[in-house]
Design goal:
Elements: H1 15-38, H2 45-58, H3 60-77, H4 90-160, E1 165-170, H5 179-187, E2 204-206, H6 215-224, E3 228-235, E4 242-254, E5 257-264
Antiparallel strand pairs: 1-2, 1-5, 3-4, 4-5
Helix pairs in contact: 1-2, 1-3, 2-3, 2-4, 3-4, 4-5
Pfam families: DUF4118
GO molecular function: ATP binding; kinase activity
Keywords: ATP-binding, Kinase, Membrane, Nucleotide-binding, Phosphoprotein, Transferase, Transmembrane, Transmembrane helix, Two-component regulatory system
Length: about 270
C-alpha cells in the first residue's frame, strides 16, 4: 500500500524551529565547556549529535539548518586559529568534508527510519479502524439475526398457544409494530381466530381469551404486566362464578420491538 502521508511524519509549526535553535545552542555551549580538554579534536561532534537529535524529533529541514549552522560555528570557534577564518587550511578542509558527509548520511538514515515508522503506524491505524468496522458489522449482523430468530419464535409461540392467548402488549408502542400484525401473521398459519380486531388499544392486542378474564385483573396487567407467572380470575360457567387460573407472560425482543405475550397456562 502506498502511503504518501508518510513523508509528513514530522511535527509542524514554529515549536520545532525553537527546539532546533535550543539544540544548536546547547551543542555550542557543551563544546565550549569541553574545549579546554579537547582543543581542536572533533570540533563538529557536538553539532552532529544535535543535528541527529533534531532530525529524530523535528524533521529534516531543521536538522539540515542545525548541520549548516553547526558547521559554521565549529569552523569559526573550534578550528585553529580560533575566532578567525582568514586562511582555509587542512583542518578546515577536513571539517568541511567529513562533517557534512557523515551528518547527511546519519540524518538520511534517521529520516528513512522515521518515515517507515510513521507509515507502519498509519497502516496499523487503518487496520485497526477496518477491524473495528468488521466487528461492528458482525455484531450488527448477529443482533439482526438474533432479533429475526426471536420474531420467528414469537410467531411460533402465538400459533402454538392461540387458544389460550389473553393479550399481546408492545413495550414501546411508538417504535414497535402493532401487536395485532403479529397476531394476524400467526392467524394465516392457523385456522383459529386469535384476536378481537377491534380491541387494539395503547399498543395492546386483546386475544379471544381476554373476554373470560375479570375486568380488574385485565386492567391490572394492562399497566403492570411483567414477564413471569400471574394469577388471574377467569369466568367459569355462570356470570359471577370466577376461578383462579395460572397465567404465563413471555417476553420477546424482536427487530420490530419488544413484546409481552400473556397466555393462560392450561
Amino acid at each position: 500500500m502506498e502511503v504518501i502521508n508518510s513523508r509528513r511524519w514530522a511535527p509542524r509549526g514554529r515549536n520545532r524551529w525553537i527546539a532546533a535553535a535550543a539544540a544548536l545552542g546547547a551543542a555550542a555551549i557543551i563544546r565550549a565547556i569541553l574545549h579546554p580538554l579537547l582543543g581542536p579534536f572533533m570540533p563538529g561532534t557536538a553539532f552532529l549529535i544535535a543535528a541527529v537529535l533534531v532530525e529524530y524529533y523535528c524533521g529534516l529541514a531543521p536538522a539540515l539548518c542545525v548541520m549548516l549552522l553547526g558547521l559554521c560555528l565549529a569552523d569559526y570557534l573550534f578550528v585553529p586559529p580560533y575566532g578567525h577564518i582568514d586562511v582555509i587550511d587542512a583542518s578546515d578542509l577536513h571539517l568541511l568534508i567529513s562533517y557534512p558527509l557523515l551528518t547527511i548520511l546519519i540524518i538520511s538514515l534517521v529520516e528513512r527510519l522515521r518515515r517507515a515508522q510513521y507509515r507502519a503506524e498509519l497502516l496499523a491505524a487503518v487496520a485497526q479502524s477496518r477491524y473495528e468496522m468488521l466487528l461492528r458489522h458482525d455484531n450488527e449482523r448477529l443482533l439482526a439475526r438474533r432479533a429475526t430468530d426471536e420474531m420467528h419464535r414469537m410467531l411460533r409461540h402465538i400459533a402454538q398457544y392461540n387458544r389460550s392467548l389473553i393479550l399481546i402488549k408492545a413495550l414501546d408502542p411508538a417504535n414497535s409494530l402493532p401487536p395485532g400484525s403479529f397476531v394476524a401473521a400467526a392467524a394465516t398459519a392457523t385456522p383459529h381466530a386469535l384476536v378481537d380486531d377491534a380491541s387494539l388499544h395503547a399498543g395492546i392486542a386483546y386475544c379471544a381469551k381476554h373476554t373470560q378474564v375479570h375486568e380488574e385483573d385485565l386492567a391490572h396487567v394492562r399497566v403492570h404486566l411483567t414477564p413471569g407467572h400471574h394469577r388471574m380470575r377467569f369466568l367459569s360457567g355462570t356470570r359471577d362464578d370466577w376461578r383462579p387460573v395460572e397465567c404465563v407472560c413471555d417476553r420477546f425482543t424482536t427487530s420490530s420491538g419488544e413484546f409481552l405475550v400473556l397466555r393462560a397456562d392450561d
